[in-house]
Amino acid sequence: MSQRTQTPTRHAVVERPRGAVAVLAVAAATFSVVTTEMLPVGLLTSIGTGLHVSDGTAGLAVTLPGLVAALAALLLPVAVRRADRRTVLALLMALLAVADVASALAPAFGVLLAARVLVGVCIGGVWAVAAGLGARLAGPERAGRATAVIFSGIAVASVLGVPAGTLLGELAGWRWGFAALAGLALAVSVLLVTVLPRLPAQEGVRLGAFPGLLRIGRLRAGLLAVTLLVTGHFAAYTYVRPVLERVPGIGAGLISGLLLAYGTAGIVGTFAGGAVAARDPRRALSAISAGLGAVVLLMVPAGASPAASVALLVAWGLAYGGVSVSAQNWVMAAAPHAREAASALFAGVFNVAIALGAFAGGRVADSRGAGAVLWLGGGLAGLALLAVVCAGGSRHAAGAATGTR
Q1: What domain range is 325 assigned to?
Q2: From the centroid of its chain, how far is CA 105?
Q3: Dist CA 143 CA 136 (whole Å)
Q4: How many structural domains are present in the chain?
Q5: Helix, strand, coil percentages for the chain (3-state, nearest 5)
Q6: Cys-Cys link to 263, which of 63, 150, 158, 192 (CB 3.0-4.6 A)?
Q7: How far apart are the C-alpha atoms of 240 and 282, rounded to whole Å?
């Protein structure tokens, strides 16, 4: 108990500018794991062709690590509850490098999936640990901005990571995309060891903490909304390449540029959503759910118009960019007394939703065609909006911050 009360004063606030550099290093870790997680989206057709599987089957390269990440997010913090968080993050990035090398060398789709299991462990572990580090590295007064920066690694992965990996895959073959990410992951591991301060565990996360957290009504509502919203997004976005390739005038050569525009909008959405969510997470998630649902559904009739499809894709990126940071703010407000356990639960739910979305989208894409995934994605985003609205008014946000329901 003495360590728990003393650690925040000794390690929670890292002096500037070291604190800012440390936050950026953690953001580099989230960038690396999300780029690795999402790279098959940009290379879906190439992977399927190279390993002789359908687009829907190739989508399992997104589904499987999502499921593993969900378990890892819950179990890894329990397994390493006394370990220094700097060491944990650095080792996870080294493991990610190994997984990327295995992916690049995979002779068959089954081997690729085995490598993606390791990717899932890294995703879940990094998310669970990194999500709650903003306050420790930047201080309570800058925690919101630091959290937004850490989660901006997700949007930057869409802007730089996935498009760059897609472009490299188109020019040199999809295997080189994974090989490049192996080098990046190893570099980030070294960076974390170099710039992060010691980060001893503040709270011993135990499996028994999760059922207790699920008794918090506002937390349950937020997790339900996130499940629906993220499942809907990934049901559609995992298959965005086949969808765009069906639009007249948009060939395979333009896909990398369009994903770059999507990701750029996502960065703007991350910080815009974070600014709103810091004051009112419910308002932020309501706007995001409504916007995402409308945009994805409008992609259906806009399929005949290249200009409309591009505009809607950018709006899609803007809307989805704020999901992670807004949901994290909701979770932190709902369970301020158990930040790392709540972050682990959030990461687990989020990654289950990624897996569900990719899996459901694959089944729909194979049976109904790529365009049908847009109806599924838009419908689930509408249900997410309903869940947020039913969670209660803004008065609950204040109550959640103090731990009341």
Answers
A1: 2-401
A2: 25
A3: 8
A4: 1
A5: 85, 0, 15
A6: 158
A7: 28
Q: What is the CATH number of the domain that holds 312?
A: 1.20.1250.20
Token pair belonging to 96:
């990610």
Q: 354-372: per-residue pLDDT in tens? A: 778 878 888 887 788 777 8
How is residue 182 written in tokens? 């192996």
Task: Name residue 13's beta-bridge partners.
Answer: 138
Instruction: Name the burial class of residue 69, with classes exposed (0-12), middle (13-18) and buried (19+) by CB atoms within 10 angstroms of its CB.
Output: buried
The least confident of 9-23, 93-107, 181-195, 253-267 is: 9-23
Give, rounded to a whole angstrom, the gap between the first and last alpha carbons of the chain: 27
CB 233 within 8 A of CB 352: no
User: CA dist 187 to 30, 164, 194, 337, Å?
Assistant: 13, 17, 11, 34
List phi, psi (to 5°) of 25: -65, -40
